[in-house]
Every structure is written in C-alpha cells, then in structure tokens.
Amino acid sequence: MALLLGSTASLAAGSGNRVCKAGSDRPFPIVAWMGPGSDILSDSTVSDMAKAGFSLWYLQNIRDPESIQKALELGGRHGIGVFVVDDRIHHKKGTTGLPLESDIEAAVRQWMSYPALAGYGIRDEPAAHEFSELTRIKNIVAGIDPARRAYVNLFPTYANSDQVGAETYADYVEGFMRSFDPSVLSYDHYCIRDGEVVSPTYYENLEIIRRVSLNAEVPFSAFTLSIPHWSYPAPTEGHIRFQLYSSLAYGAGELQYFTYGAVPNKDYGDGLIDAKGNKTETYGMASKVNWEIQRMGPVLLELKSTAVFHTDPQPSGTQEFTGHGGLEKCSGEAVLGFFEDSKGQTWLMVVNRDPFDSARVKLTFSDKVESVGELDRTKEGCTVNPVELEKQKLSLPLAAGDGRLFRIDTM
Questions:
Q1: 175: buried, middle or exposed (CB in 10 Å: 19+, 13-18, 0-12)?
Q2: Of 249, 366, 351, 252, nearest to 307 (Cα)?
Q3: What are residue 17's DSSP bridge partners?
Q4: Rounded distance, CA 86 to CA 108, Å?
Q5: Fewest CB within 10 angstroms: 36, 196, 202, 285, which?
Q6: Can you tell me the distance from the alpha carbon of 218 to that of 186, in angstroms, rounded to the nearest whole number?
C-alpha cells in the first residue's frame, strides 16, 4: 500500500543539486471524491483518473457490492487506493445509534482482502455529539483491519453552531481529535463564491486545522472545489491553484477534490468528468496542476511545516510576516509557508493570494542566505534549480493562485 498511498522519499546529493528518488509515479495523496458512477465504471474512466494524477478515490456514489468490487479491482489495476463507502459501516446523516457490529464486521471482512483498499468511509461532516458513535465504529473496524484508514471529514468554519454542535469551531476540531484520534484530519472549506469573493474565514480555518494537526502529529487533508453549484462558480485554473497551493503552504499532507464526477440527482454542474464520463475543461486544468504537485511530491512529503505568514493586508486569524527563515521582506499579497526537511534544510512556499489575477511578489533575503533554489515541477527528478538573486532580491511572477517552492541555503 505504500506505493498507492505515498511514501516519504529519500534524498541524495548529485551533480550539485538535490535529487529525489521517488517510490511511485504518484507519491502525493490526491483524492478523487465521488469518481465515475456505477453506470460508467470502466477501465477507461478509471484510467483517466490515474492519468489526471489522482492516487486515491472515495466511492461516495458507488454503494452496491458488485460495483464496489469492480472499483477495487480497477483501482488496483491503475494504482489508485480506494475508500469504500459501505452502508453497513457508513454512519448516515440524520440517524442515531451504531450500525450493528455483525454488519460492520461482515463488510470489513468482505473488502479487506483487496490490495487497493485504502480505507472505509465512516461519515462526512458529523456534529460533535456524534463523535463517540463514530469512534465506536472506527474501533470495531480497526479491531478487524487495523491497517486501513477510517475516513471522516469535518465541517468548515462557516458551518453554524447547530451543525458542529460545539461552542467554537476550534472546540469542534479539537474534540474530534481527542475522541476519534484520526490517522488523517480531513475537512472541507469551499472558499470561492460568485462575484470573485473569497471566504473571509478561509485562512482562519487553515490556521486552526494546521495547529491541531501539528499538535497531534497527524497530517491534514484539505479540499478543492471543482464543481459549480449553488453560489459556487465553475472553477478556473486560478481557483484550483489557489486552493491546492494555499493548502500546501499550510503543510497539507493530502489534497481532495469535490468532485471528480457528476453528483447524481442534484442540480450541480459537471466535475472533472460529466455524467457520461466525458472529460470537461476542469479535467485538463486539474490534471496540469496535479502533476506539478506529483512531481514535487517526494519533497513535499518529507517537509514539516514550521511557520505560515501573510503579507498585508493580513487576513483574519493569520500571522503577519515581519521576517523569518532567511527571508527579510516580502512585498505583494502572498502566503509564505516555511518548512524544514529531515536534514534541517529550510524551504519556502510562496503563494499568490489572488485566485483571480496574476501578481508579482518581491522577496528580499538576508545577507546570511548563500543561495536560493527552486524545486522544478516541470519534470520528474525533483531537481532544485539555482535562482539568481540581485542584491539578495528576487522578483517573482506568479499566475493567479499559483505557488512555488524554494530551498534556502544559509551560510
């Protein structure tokens, strides 16, 4: 399963640059939430998912045993880990009580022998009063199949108090961590609305999730909205970049798309594919960005988030940048995510905070910075290409919502 779910890559020095040796062609966990439905489930539709850079697949819209089995077989064929959503395990919204232990056990034993199985869908967006029930389900599953993940995804900050069932959002997330003790902390926050509006609590949500994730030493997983519905517009490449790279700047260890496929029986637009399995324009945009991230994946998986800052105007709940990690100044609206690798090397991800337009960010490094290199996301090999500084300054063009990753070498 290390091949399917991603592994920490080793780094070796070579030819003056640091080059990674990847364990997979898709080392970074990227989840296709709600992929092709049962009626279009085929070798070609699953192959398309793999070709778009996805390494995991959540079967929200596939519930019948025959199709689940087919999805697991196809996932295994194309190197994609599969989260099964079995109604004998999954705790439905609006229900009370625990599914029968005998039903949970039967479901786990039915699917656990499939090598492509990544985990079991337990619940999406629970309230705090449901945590104990979900924990009991998780414990039953873990008692039979401890190697697989019990998948639960949390509400965002804009959910109301009745939905989260806690006094504050931080209480909600921290309570889940204490009760459920997840192997991955997953949440969604769809931040871009019609009229080029970004949710005012988007970064505050990331701040809370990052803090809880680091304190618990558990990776977190963040969503990218890829389907138009309600007041959410059809995504542009800038929208996709903004959500993915902002999450990475905060140290996300997994990325998810809502949704890959069509949403049945609802007035939604198309995801990366339509109801017939045809690729949409969003497929091409997502595939492009996914493969940039996959090429950087072996390095990203080794990094530990050490700090995140924002330039002025500072979004709510964030930390103002006043100098850190060899970087003295930054002009332009940007997210600055600092990291450290296993060798103690400092890395910096710079993200354009505007998902709608390109920008130019100007970075000024301290005199103690000997050199700066950028991780090459255009080809395999994780080569760090030297960046030319002029009097310790770097003028950095960024496409809408784009992020770039740099290594900072100090004297």
A1: middle
A2: 249
A3: 14
A4: 9
A5: 196
A6: 10
Write the single-letter amino acid at 157. T
Percentage of residues in the chain with pLDDT exceeding 70? 93
Note the residue count of the chain.
411
Q: Cα dihedral sign for 224, 227, 230, 236?
A: positive
Count of alpha carbons within 13 angstroms of residue 285, beta-carbon side: 25
Torsions phi, psi of 385, nearest 5?
-90, 130
Those residues of the chain that have pLDDT short of 70 are 1-26, 94
- The identity of residue 280, as a single letter, is T
Quick one: pLDDT at residue 99?
86
CA–CA distances in Å: residue 340 to residues 88, 139, 218, 327, 370: 42, 34, 17, 14, 17
* Contact yes or no for 403/349 (Cβ under 8 A): yes
- Please name the amino acid found at residue 296: M
Q: Are 9 and 25 in contact (CB under 8 A)?
A: no
DSSP per-residue codes, 236-282: PHHHHHHHHHHHHHTT-SEEEEE-SS--TTSS----SB-TTS-B-HH
